[in-house]
Amino acid sequence: MSLLFAMSVGLLAQSGEGQGYEGQNWTHYVRTSGHGLTLENAAEIVAGAAQTHIFGIEVDNSLTGYYESFMDPAEKLAALEKVTRLAHQAGNKVFVYTEGLETITSNADQKPHTFFKDHPDWVQRDINGRPAVFGGGDAFWIAEGDEDVWISPYAMEWRTLFMERIRQIAATGIDGVFVDIPYWMTHFEGWEDTWASFDEYTRAAFKAVSGLDAKTDLKLGDFDDPNFRRWVDFRIRTLTDFMAEVAENGRSVNPDFKTIAEIYPGIEEAAVRVGADVYQMYEVVDVVAHEYSAGGYTAAERSPLDWFADQVGMLSFRAFAGDKATWMLSYSWDNHQEVPIPEAMDNLMMAQVMVGANCWDARGHVMSGSNDLAHRTRLFQWIATHEKTFYRPRTPINPVGVYFSPQTRNYFADDYIPVFRGLAMLFLQGHREFQIVTPRTLADFKGETLILDEVKCLSREEGALLKSFVENGGDLWLAGDCGSHDQTGAPLSAEGGRAIADLAKEGGGRLAQSRGEAYYAALRKGSKNVATLREEFFEHLDARRKSVPAMRVDAPSTVSATIARVDGRPHLFLSNFTGLVAKQNAAQKPVKGVTVTFPGAGGQVYCLPFMGEVTPLKSRNGKDGQKVTLPDIKKGMVVWIEPQKP
To answer: Mean pLDDT throughout 24-46?
Structure first.
């Protein structure tokens, strides 16, 4: 055992990092970065992870991503066995990156055998038969002379071999596999509008379930065409089923084996076009790693509005995940000379931990390295120290429900996403507790008010659950166009739409104008009436509520607030975006004088400033409850109240 590796074992053991907590697995406590793996550098990787407080080590040897190792994986499997043994000796976890539907043949221009030369029928194609084959310059990771192919998930000979490789990876004892790019080819230049793939295997599979020929029986890109909508659903279901099969094969060897899907589309239209829908993926994998940005690709490029949009996306992912972890493979800084690197790194990780997402540090826009290794070490050490605060399960207290409709997004994305995003931002900027509710969680929603804004598509099952919600005393609000289409996107009769409207009248009311749409439009324009729209919305909401909110927060609208119960205690997670200027300034203006009032009296209030220490706060009791004035908020802060001891 090398001295460096022996020291790493001691470091991790002394820190207590990586110790699991009741009811959760290790994926909830990951802080990571990428590492290129060989047989020679395994010990160095494990030692470096301990020194920088990484928990959950990502290693990358692209076993299925290169044609040569896909066909002969022995050397790369040996490297996985070695790094797994060393990581486990150090008390850490380790998972391996590999490609899903993409494979590269290196130096293909000098070889008689390449993936495409050997198996042209396995490759995805556009509707005109053009194969999804690329070369140097088509993407930054494809070298000159290499051949890059995108594979049909219905090429069953390939799929059988791929699943064998997954089982072999699991047999090394490694803790999980991180599968990148399980995508239909629609994201390279010239392929954006192809809605691929139209290879013979995929066409046959679609015909078997629909009776339709994908080349001739649908209007490509036309969401008014029911056959095209069936194609959209088929593509999403195909990639979800593919990842489910990956997970099943891994668990067949090791029941504790974790499957992580790396997905860049989030809640927006890209999920439909690429076919990788994280709402569906979360049901079949253990973790989704989101290579996500909602505006401003790196933290250094983001405006305050970008940050709010990003948090709406992350909170949606947390809602989709249920009791699973959410990892964020996002980027902090990529040669933005006006922005100090540590500021950008701080903002990225602050915004993530405040919504309960796990952090991934990387250099530039790749998966490995760091823009500032020493600062990463400080960040990860602080997160490790306070990991229970951020990653123990968060449960609702007394939320207003904001409904997310995957099917409405699938067929009406351009209309729906700005509305949903605006409604969620109303609550974040109004510092009110809300819960994103989905078709999967609707039956279990316990709040008294539920808002559907521009939710065009509703299934019969959703309608029945909404009816039950109203019959049990729930306050149902509908805004904009709700319930005008079924779950397939087919228009309903006027009677169907009226039934939903009548249900809203029984339980609450129908708001003629979409509140989310108006608010988001005002934010984007920088309108002066943003505050008025927010105040009017909450006045209307408060006038109807029967119960008292979990807490009252008085803060500027440039501060984002999420509220939840953690280990039985009400918590407030604050993110400060005041004064940020995209590409110019990543140092927030500190916010002074924020007050928090907890209903009732009794208990000690604490705060945890981002990168600071837990501090008790003085509070005073009044007619509205126990009120505390917070210290200046620089980047972010957590606030909670501990009950009085008997």
So the answer is: 98
